[in-house]
């Protein structure tokens, strides 16, 4: 398997995975952010888009940087092994970015809940 063919397959799989995970994060994150921002749909959608764009940029940048390889692909077996390592790296980065998004969402939500609690307590005192 040639290096060019290995890289083409790598790009196709990596871009497909990135787009799929990004779409899932955007779809699920939309509802969560709507709750975090107290029903402000415009703000929730804007933040959601910004997070997804950042996700795409980081992951596609990683995919591009890891295209260069020091391994050889003298035969199909070596090409598949190299491809599996590269795809494994992409999957690990996708997983790490997913958990980073969850941490950001959790912090946003806890801040919003604390702000709502303070607002309710202030209203009760008046």
Describe the structure.
There is one protein chain. This protein is mainly α and 126 residues long. The chain has one domain. Helix content is 87%, strand content 0%. It is built from three helices and no strands. The longest helix has 50 residues, at 76-125. The radius of gyration is 20 Å and the shape is rod-shaped.
SSE string: HHH
Query: Treating each run of at least 4 consecutive H or I residues as one helix, how many helices?
Result: 3
| Overall number of domains | 1
Head-to-tail CA distance between termini: 74 Å
Rg for CA atoms: 20 Å
Average of pLDDT: 84
Number of separate strands: 0
Output the structural class: mainly alpha
Strand content: under 5%
Shape: rod-shaped
Runs in which pLDDT lies below 50 for 5 or more consecutive residues are: none
| Helical residue percent band | over 70%
For the report, how would you describe the main beta sheet?
none
Please give a quick description of this structure:
This protein is mostly helical and 126 residues long. It has helices at residues 3-36, 41-65, 76-125.
Helices and strands, with pairings:
Blueprint: H1 3-36, H2 41-65, H3 76-125
Helix pairs in contact: 1-2, 1-3, 2-3
Looking at this protein, list some descriptive labels:
mainly alpha
């Amino acid at each position: 398997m040639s290096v060019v063919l290995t890289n083409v397959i790598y790009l196709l799989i990596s871009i497909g995975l990135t787009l799929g995970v990004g779409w899932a994060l955007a779809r699920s994150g939309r509802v969560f952010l709507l709750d975090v921002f107290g029903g402000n749909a415009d703000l929730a959608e804007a933040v959601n888009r910004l997070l997804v764009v950042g996700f795409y940029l980081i992951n596609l940048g990683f995919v591009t940087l890891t295209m260069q390889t020091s391994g050889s692909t003298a035969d199909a077996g070596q090409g598949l092994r190299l491809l599996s390592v590269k795809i494994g790296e992409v999957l690990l980065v996708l997983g790490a970015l997913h958990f980073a998004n969850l941490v950001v969402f959790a912090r946003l939500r806890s801040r919003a809940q604390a702000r709502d609690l303070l607002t309710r307590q202030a209203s009760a005192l008046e």
